[in-house]
Design brief:
Blueprint: H1 2-15, E1 17-26, H2 30-41, E2 46-49, H3 68-73, H4 77-82, E3 86-88, E4 90-95, E5 99-104, E6 116-118, H5 121-134, E7 139-140, E8 144-151, E9 154-160, E10 166-176, H6 183-187, E11 203-207, E12 221-224, E13 230-235, E14 240-244
Parallel strand pairs: 1-2, 1-10, 2-7, 4-12
Antiparallel strand pairs: 3-6, 4-5, 8-9, 9-10, 11-14, 12-13, 13-14
Helix pairs in contact: 2-5
Amino acid sequence: AMVYYYIHIQNKLIDMEKEKVDVLIIGAGPSGTVAASIINQAGFKTKIVEKEQFPRFVIGESLLPKCMEPLEAAGFLPALKAKGFQEKFGAKFIRNEAQSMDFNFSSQWTQGWSWTWQVPRAEFDLVLTEEVQKMGVPVEFRTAVEKIEFDGQKSKTTVRTPDGSVKEIEANFIVDASGYGRVIPRLFNLDRPSTLPARKTLFTHIKDDRRNNYVEPNRILIVDHDSQVWIWCIPFSNGLTSCGF
């Protein structure tokens, strides 16, 4: 009985493995990896936990030039440029074929980036996670946050790992980069229903063999169908086009 009790206690200790970091980041999307890189550069021990397995299909494929500033600060630009993503210099909005608005990012009031990218997010996000790991920030995929306890400034986060075991991560600070997951608001009953109108989207990636026959085949195009409906066409450098309604 004593042997069994000893083994049982040892297994419990292994299951509840503890780890200490300066900053724990929840979510390995662009905001999470950018934050992790910048915090890591400042000399703090940083770790990311992510409930999904990358690469994963996700929306949000057309960046804005302002996005280039945090990507540059995080040190991600060389790796992103090497991937050859479709460069984006503006956007065109069309209504009823007769009306159009053409935005060029080089027409700006203050100095800044005049271009950005159109990216398949699965590939884009994977590049960021690979780069941040090269910088020394560990990323644990398929790791879900189950509980967070605060003790003054310090926190203790309980996560479930891919093999089903549970462990605790102690951190001085937490960055919740979970986006729509809203991990901290949900855990502490701070989540509130949105007052914005509900939106639904149908979108997919298609291969258009006639794309290069169009005028400006690599330009993002937004069609204003009516006050409630709009359609996007986002061409990627890999030959695919994202179409959403």
